[in-house]
Structure formats: C-alpha cells, structure tokens
Write a structure and sequence with these properties.
By secondary structure, the chain is mainly beta. About 0% of the residues lie in helices and about 40% in strands.
C-alpha cells in the first residue's frame, strides 16, 4: 500500500509504502529510501529506531534507516585522486572530511517509486555529475523487500557515467528490545580484523587483529559501553552472500547476511538526550547501526579493497537481516 506520509519543511511530499511478508511488516519512505518502521509478528514492538517527525532526521536521527552514499562512511580530508584527477567532496564531517556522501546525499533525497508489490518496493534516484563533488552522473536503485523466511532484504545497485567511488549502505539503527539501550544485546561478528581510526574517525591505514581488544566479537558477548564506531573487516573484497554477524535481544535474534567486505558497527552513543518518538529523551546507545559496505576511505588507502565503479560496470550490494523469534 502506498500513501502520502508527510510534507518536508521545503514542501516536498514524502510517500510511505507498507510491506508485509514472512511474519514481518515494514514501512518504507521515499525520503532517503528509509526503512521507517519494522516489526515482527511475534513481538509488539518496533525493531528499528525511528521518529514520527521527519524534521528529526535533520537532527539526532540523521541517517537513521536511510540509504547512504555515494560513498558510505568517511572520506579523509574530503578529497581523493582518481585517474590522476583530484576530486574535492563535501566537507560535512568536522568541517574537514566527507561522511556518507555529503550533507545532501541520497539520505536527504526523495527517491522515485519504480515498482511496488505487497512485499517489496523498488526505488530509484539519479545524482547529477558533480553532486557533492563526485564525478559523473550516478543512477541508484534500492530494492527493499520482506522475504518469506522472515528477512528484510536490501539490494542496492548503481551505474555511473564517469569513474567514481561507490559504496551504498542501509543505515538502520536496530534495537531488538523496542526501547532502552542496546548495551545488553549480544553481538557476534565473523571478523578477525578491524580498522583503527585517528582522533577524527578516519582510518589510519592499519588493519589490526581484534584479538585482545574491545573489538573482539568473534564469540557472542554484550555490546557494553566501551564505545564502537569502527569497520570490521569481513573479507578483502565482495563475496557470495554469507552470514557475517548475529545480534540477540530479548526473545529475538537477527542474522546479517551480505555480499560486502566491511561491516561498520556504531553503538549510537550520540542518542543521549535526543527526543524519542514520544519526545522523552533517549538514552545513549538507543540503537545499533550495522552497515554493510566497502571499507571507509578505501579510495585513499592502497591496502584496502577497491571501491571504484567505472562506466559500463554495475555495482550491486545485497544484504539480508534475518529475524527469528527465540524461546
């Protein structure tokens, strides 16, 4: 079902598409191709953090549930050299770096509905040459669906008219308990290495083992309060779909399957004091972001897996969030 949802402050109308299948229901918005609501039939609570007020997505809820890109995560010093040409991208992070493709990236755009059914919606977006400093026109497609085995499936694709770094990601904040913080959720990640970052959250270039660090989630354990906003190295390039992470809440398990080489895990520490859906302040770590993507700053790090898409090629990323009620 498709219906008008809300009007943005600038007058743009946002539509909502309601999906249902496999014991899940979801609401997808054309604003940012956002998964605005997600629920499991066995539990009377939302599984993702969201606000009923679209204006909040310019504040504390920035990026929540949306598709981010052209290049998800960070680009150090908001610049990169490609085929001998230097490109300067939007400096929307600390006034020095690029985050999630710039301030006016796909997360802030109204996507077009190309196809819709009871269980899936396909949305499209065209970004012009030079948008946020990136070269070439980019044609993006997001298919968001619910499968019969209880999975939220996100398939992201892109084509470009000039060589360009491309990494698209779904940026949902998950809270399987429907409230409180996620510090007690148990997380397991199939990654032996992670990317250390500097004081401004830019990868240092080192690929470090998780062993004997607070980033070792090879065995399931509570997320806790140690603080995490880092890329976990799943592989050195794209792979066939495989399970890479498991998150357990109260009575529900989520398994993440993906084709991508990286998993950015962010514990949502910034939510402390942000007005929640009922305007009561949220706690720190109110939701956990689990973003499947290329490694951050890959275009500036020769030791990282490649991220450049060229004309005539097709980028595709597939991620499944599979939900299973537990005892």
């Amino acid at each position: 079902m498709t219906e008008d949802f809300q009007t943005l402050a600038d007058g743009r109308m946002v539509q909502a598409v309601t999906l249902s299948n496999g014991g899940l229901t979801a609401r997808v918005l054309t604003y940012g191709a956002m998964v605005h609501d997600l629920r499991h039939v066995a539990l009377d609570r939302p599984l993702v953090l969201s606000s009923p007020r679209l204006g909040d997505y310019e504040g504390g809820y920035l990026y929540a549930g949306t598709i981010v890109g052209r290049f998800a995560n960070r680009i150090g010093n908001a610049r990169f050299v490609l085929d001998g040409e230097t490109h300067e991208t939007d400096r929307n992070f600390l006034g020095r770096h690029t985050l999630h493709g710039g301030a006016d990236g796909p997360h802030a755009q109204i996507w077009d509905i190309a196809e819709v059914s009871d269980s899936a919606v396909t949305l499209t977006l065209t970004l012009p040459d030079g948008h946020m400093g990136f070269p070439g026109e980019a044609q993006l497609t997001a298919r968001i669906g619910l499968s019969g085995d209880g999975a939220l499936e996100v398939t992201l694709s892109a084509q470009v008219t000039k060589p360009c770094p491309i990494s698209l990601a779904h940026h949902g904040y998950f809270n399987l308990n429907g409230g409180g913080d996620v510090t007690g959720h148990r997380l397991r990640i199939a990654a032996d290495h992670y990317l250390p970052v500097d004081a401004e959250m830019i990868p240092t270039g080192q690929i470090a083992p998780v062993a004997d660090t607070s980033f070792d989630f090879r065995s399931a354990r509570p997320i806790g309060e140690a603080g995490v906003d880092h890329n976990f190295c799943l592989s050195d390039g794209k792979r066939p779909m495989r399970p890479v992470a498991w998150l357990d809440g109260d009575g529900l398990r989520m398994t993440i399957e993906t084709t991508e080489p990286g998993l950015q895990v962010y514990d949502g520490a910034h939510f402390a004091g942000v007005p929640g859906p009922d305007r009561a302040p949220l706690p720190a770590r109110a939701g956990l972001a689990l973003e499947t993507q290329a490694w951050p700053d890959a275009m500036n790090q020769p030791g990282f897996p490649g991220c450049i898409l060229r004309p005539g090629e097709r980028y595709e990323s597939v991620t499944r969030y599979v939900f299973e009620a537990a005892g």
